[in-house]
Amino acid sequence: MPTPTKGPRLGGSPSHEKMMLANLSANLFEHRAITTTLTKAKRLRPYAERLITMAKQGDIAARRRVVGKISANSATNQAIVHELFTVIAPAMAEREGGYTRIVKIGNRKGDNAPMAVIELVMEPVSPKQAVVKEAEQATATPAAQPAQEEATEVESTEVESTEAQTTETDSADTATTESESAPAESTEAEGQK
Predict the structure, then answer these.
(1) Radius of gyration of the chain (CA)
(2) Could you describe the subunit structure of this protein (predicted)?
């Protein structure tokens, strides 16, 4: 059983909410922008974006899932599904999400409810954004490799310096031991005389 949404549902019952979201999404795909309350727009955004993602797949199974979500039993809704798959989805092919935009437009005159316009972002992804994303990916991978090479160079330098210090310490210890044993031998030799 799916987990119910927190808080009050749009329109009261779950079935009414599903039908409302289906109708809002159909109108959004038909008109490219709709004016509704801010709450409905926020609930519609993930629903519509999921439908667009399904439409980008383009296969018959995705088309059937979208038809089931929009309730495309009428000729107008079938035309909307066709437009979604043939016009909207190819226009969104370069985008990896963020297909809709919500713009607040103030409060409604009668009941002072906050209103918003939800619209499809039909502009193509700007080349600048694509170049910046590619540059970030390119700098992220080579930057990691030199950092690893520098780390191994630093480790090898530290190992060499540690080995040199160990060798010097061993030499000094040997010299100290010889100098300490020499006076002790001389003291023993003097004691025997």
Answers:
(1) 37
(2) Part of the 50S ribosomal subunit. Contacts protein L32.
pLDDT score, position 142: 58
Residue 20 DSSP one-character state:
H
Encode pLDDT of 49-75 as tens digits: 999 999 999 999 999 999 999 886 788
What's the gap between Cα 22 and its chain centre? 27
What is the C-alpha to C-alpha distance for residues 51 and 66, in angstroms, rounded to an integer? 6
CA distance linking residue 160 with residue 191, whole number of Å:
46
Instruction: List all residues 6 or more positions away from 130 whose beta carbon is below 8 Å from its beta carbon.
Output: 94
Distance CA(32)–CA(72), nearest Å, equals: 18
Distance CA 67, CA 76 (A): 12
Tokens 């919500």 — which residue? 102
Residue 71, CB-side half-sphere exposure with 13 Å CA sphere: 10
